[in-house]
Amino acid sequence: METKNLTDVQNYNYGIEKIFDKAQDFLPINGTDYVELYVGNAKQAAHFYKTAFGFQSLAYCGLETGNREFCSYVVVQDKIRLVLTTPFNPDSEISDHIRRHGDGVKVIALWVDDAQSAYDETTKRGAEGVMEPTVFEDKDGIVIKAAIKTYGDTIHMFVERKKYNGIFLPGFEKWESDYNPPATGLKYIDHMVGNVDLGEMNKWADFYANVMGFANLVTFDDKDISTQYTALMSKVMTNGNGRIKFPINEPAAGIKKSQIEEYLDFYGGPGCQHIAVATDDIVFTISEMRKRGVEFLYVPGTYYDTVAERVGEIAEELEKLKSLGIMVDRDEDGYLLQIFTRPVEDRPTLFFEIIQRKGAKSFGKGNFQALFESIEAEQARRGTL
What we know:
Blueprint: E1 2-5, E2 31-38, H1 42-53, E3 56-61, E4 70-77, E5 80-87, H2 93-101, E6 104-111, H3 115-123, E7 129-138, E8 141-149, E9 155-160, E10 173-174, E11 186-195, H4 201-210, E12 215-220, E13 231-238, E14 245-252, H5 259-267, E15 271-279, H6 282-291, H7 307-311, H8 318-324, E16 327-331, E17 334-340, E18 351-358, H9 368-382
Parallel strand pairs: 2-5, 6-9, 11-14, 15-18
Antiparallel strand pairs: 1-7, 2-6, 3-4, 3-10, 4-5, 7-8, 8-9, 11-15, 12-13, 13-14, 16-17, 17-18
């Protein structure tokens, strides 16, 4: 694989038109390209995501491909690509990241048609560059990547791949594996949530608005997301075509330590709290994931006593949803079904949300109370509430 500076090389729509003028979208994004996690043992992490979540082997780079710094395993399910990366050098930047944060999201890669333009437009509006537009090349073509900083140690990587026909990226080879458990029905990344420090939510909402051209889709304050003990505030930012949605959470004043404060303590600062992945059949998906050992937050049985009157008619059997712990909420466009895993790391940090939208464009506001009570029960068990 060769790398060159770009200057050396020639050359769902969710109805948010009401709040976002696409003609002024200076940063067009096609979707999420991949999410890269820095982990302590990439080989074992890949096995976990294949076994528990139904991902398939896609690509690999490491010693065998000439990479002496780190290895990466890429797993895929429909439009979702996770890159799991482990360093070889204990003194590397990747090692420092794992030491401080544990396993966690480092790169949220965004698929763009023009990485140079994406980098230029964001940096001239105030983004701090991490990597100038650079060409990565092998026999299958070229990929242009550029990166900027966002909250904490998280970065956004702009990936332009229109002149590339390889399995994933230059430097990677196809990962052949006899072990590929069946998929669980996960389709794409619906949204990714960032936790930031107290008083930082507006700063980062402004960053996405002013630097990346996003719009504020919805805002939740501490009256919307609270219990008698804890609270948080959140702003959901979205890009021009609605394919990228980033809720930004900060803690709010409460009697006890909120889930956001717990995350910040154990992660060692701001970072990606959870990845929401979509399915077309949440009953099937959660049934499969439970069989494979994925643990989900417990939803009190009393939650389902009021679902029918609050949500109205739904296609799914309520008793089945109750048995699986799947929550339901409705907005003016339809309803959604959602459930949250317990943290997938030993530290109470990163977790996943599984969501199925039946027309709804919202984020399950009607479920916030039950969700928070479930999270607080988990915090109490850990002694961190």
